Amino acid sequence: MTSSTMADALDDTALLRYARQILLSEIDIAGQQALAASRVLIIGMGGLGCPAAQYLAAAGVGNLTVCDGDQVELSNLQRQILYSETDLGRPKALAARDRLRAMNQQIRVSAWAESAQPESLAAALDTHDLVLDCTDNFSSRHAINCACRNAGKPLISAAAIRWEGQLAVFDARVPESACYACLYPDGIEDTEDTCSRSGVLGPLLGVLGSMQAAEAIRLLCTGHSPLAGQLLLVDAQSWQWRQIALRRDPACGVCA
Which residues are registered as beta bridge partners of 244? Predict the structure, then answer.
């Protein structure tokens, strides 16, 4: 069954497969059909993108595009749970595509085996409903934020380093909502810290990537997220969580 057919009617196999989430009143049959008709772009198939993509594939999102220009390396296997030792040296996007297709043959998975550039992002967003930013550097995050803002598409962003992480939903459809550049003005990459220098806890990335998938499912089924305009911070050493309201920067170069 193709994703377009699923969007019209769920057969007995689909009803059984997705029964546990269809039971949720916020999803139900209509939400499952919405998931089947949706197109989600996941940029960055590392420690965040792997669990996010797995949960979206398992949930029955009809069209997934996974984007990453890197190859699988041995140091990735500590946290990038889609890959195995047999994938070493393969493009991450292709290895992820193959694993996700094997997980759920009812959905379509496309691989974009290159780093997303501003021009290609603009074209890609024309055919996608929302974006998950699972990248690990400020320059990519700013480019993705700008493209999503220009296209009016929701952006679910997460990041982690050491034992600390954050999650935010930037929804350009919400009036007066802040964007990523309001939180981190462009140019901050000059002082950027990285996981390769400072390390990161693998399960923390799994938690945040799973939360990105949860917000994507919520947005696709209900059209809104309680994290729109909010920044959720977590310290995994103490499991302390904080939620901060974000305000649009009147001097922001992207959304002001």
Answer: 231
